[in-house]
Amino acid sequence: MKNTKGIENIYKTYQANLKAVSYYFEKFGDLAIGEDRSMASEASGFINALFQKSGIDIDTIRNNDKKNRDDNEKSSFKIQIDEADANLLLKMVDKQSKISTKNFEVLSKGAFLMLNNYFEYLLADLLSFYYTSFQKSLNDKEVKMSLKEINEYESIEELVNAQIQREVEAMLIEKTFEQLLDHFETRLKISLEKDIINWSLIKEYRERRHIIVHNSSIVNKKYITRTDNPYNLKIGDTVGISKEYFAESLRVFQIAGLLLIFECWGNWEKGTADKAIETMMVQSFNFLKNNDNHLAKSICNFSDKIEARNEHQENCLLRLLINKCIALKRLDNKTTLKKELKKIKVGTSTPIFKIAYLILNDNDEDLLENFKRAKVLKEIDKHIYFEWPIFEFIRNRDDLHLEIINILNN
């Protein structure tokens, strides 16, 4: 049976899901923070009004408090208030208790839960693809069905597909996360890329999700024992999802998902290897455009193990290596950059690759001549010059930049 949902579609779906949740968080996160600040300001105004209604001078209390702290003394005072004012104060307190300043907390936790869910959906999609494409791997699986259940399907193909989905759902429910990863690694022969993917953090994200959903965001013993506790939490602590924490979890889930996809793509759809490597190259380029240098470097590190089988793959892998060097140069990792540059051989390459090599080596010699040759060969134009990350290293050099613009304009 042909699998209609190829791995390229799984890749596109995962990317679209992460983009959507990231947009949701960025778009509404700031609005939620602004609303929380507005409510906090309202709460502050309420407290000031409360004191004023009680006949208390806040500035006097603060000044006395500072003086007493300086003198290591304590003071006390009594407040007299009539019944009508007391009732008014109670109404103000009741109104204040209804004001919530947890908009960002609710939104950030919701976005974090979606991230976890999308990663689970990805694992389910990959498992479904594998067992649909390689049905013989389930030949030994015993299935008990009544004749009535069998008659519910219009064809054997539909029945088999339904059983595969049931098998995948059973795996996701019955296996722990560690067992599921082990299934990919040992049964399906998929590398987990442990040198690149931080599985320890992903386990923490999943356990944090569990305590948010099932334990009112309070750390319990199960969280401590099931994670490496990278944030040094204690039992009884309340966890939240800060902007920084969400951004980190998004990056970790993104690189983990992408590398799993590319690993499965290379093993399960060898006939579309050209497309897989090209997609990898474009993905690293997009990370660089968004200044996600660590993500770009991770994708490129993964590509190091791929051996080119044709000219197209060789071209893409060279571009991946150049993209890695761009990321390393941005990250100011000079030692690794020098090591990686030695792998680049541009002797017979076209001018555009020679330009990249010269820029990465901070070498201006023959740079302008190669720009002229690249323009003649239509390898570069002004759009490419202003879009490609490699050229940012020379666009901020006014003298060189103007000469290149003149070349591209002629």
Description of the molecule:
- The protein has 4 domains: 7-23 and 104-138 and 146-250, no CATH class; 36-97, no CATH class; 270-344; 352-410, no CATH class.
- The longest helix has 47 residues, at 7-53.
- It has 410 residues and is mostly helical.
- It is 70% helix and 0% strand.
- The chain is built from 19 helices and no strands.
- It has helices at 7-53, 58-70, 83-97, 103-133, 147-150, 156-174, 177-187, 199-214, 221-226, 243-268, 273-289, 293-303, 311-330, 334-341, 351-360, 367-376, 382-387, 392-395, 398-409.
- Mean pLDDT is 85; it is low at 97-101.
Question: What is shown here, in short?
Answer:
The chain is mostly helical and 410 residues long.
Helix-residue proportion: 55-70%
Largest beta-sheet characterization = none
N- and C-termini, Cα separation:
57 Å
How many domains? The number is 4
Which blocks of ≥5 consecutive residues have pLDDT under 50? 97-101
- Alpha plus pi helix count: 19
